Amino acid sequence: MNSFDNKVALVTGASxxxxxxxxxQLAKNGAHVVIHFNSNQKGATEVVSQINNSGGKSFAxxxxxxxxxxxxxxxxxxxxxxxxxxxxxxxINNAGDQSLDPTDLLDDSxxxxxxxxxxxxxxxIVKACLKIFKPGNAIVNITSVEAQFPFPNHSLYxxxxxxxxxxxxxxxxxxxxxxxxxxxxxxxxxxxxxxAQSWPEGLIKWNExxxxxxxxxxxxxxxxxxxxxxxxxxxxxxxxxxxDGGWSVA
Length: 250
Prior knowledge:
This protein is an alpha/beta fold. It is built from eight helices and seven strands.
């Protein structure tokens, strides 16, 4: 029997990249996966097709987590999901805004989008799920090594991930009464198509410092997420697991 048979997992920001890999791995291990997306409907449709054509179960739901009254947004979002599945057993808050710091220091739009998407939206979604959470359920928030080691021009992004890390710790304490665990996974630089072309100087610096001399892969990060969600990690809550190939300690 697969680890997540008869379980429902919601992965935000799952139309591409790390979220896509997490969704695929959950489906391979038996979960019915809800693919959240904002604007990339084509990508979400492709992920759903890939999972369903491989014998898994998934469907996509659109929701903009960057603006509005997020409590209302999250309530409507979760209500729409619950029209198709009876519950949500696992929540992976992966959606993120990684915009660079604005050149205009008075431009609040970037700050608002980053903080809404990366910090307030995960909290609102957890709050919206409180009525259905039950013992054994688990949450993983995707943070970043930048919560501790910010990159240039990423002060807002790094700050948001630091805030999400602290929220993870608080949520772990508060949700323990419900029998729900909450952890974080903090990836380092993740390999992706075109990385060497889009950020050559950053990749070179990363590889020079990394003991493995390479970025981590989406699969390596996804496997860590699945472990923290699984019953094998039943005694683990409130921690942040860095998956960076040793970059942060080198």
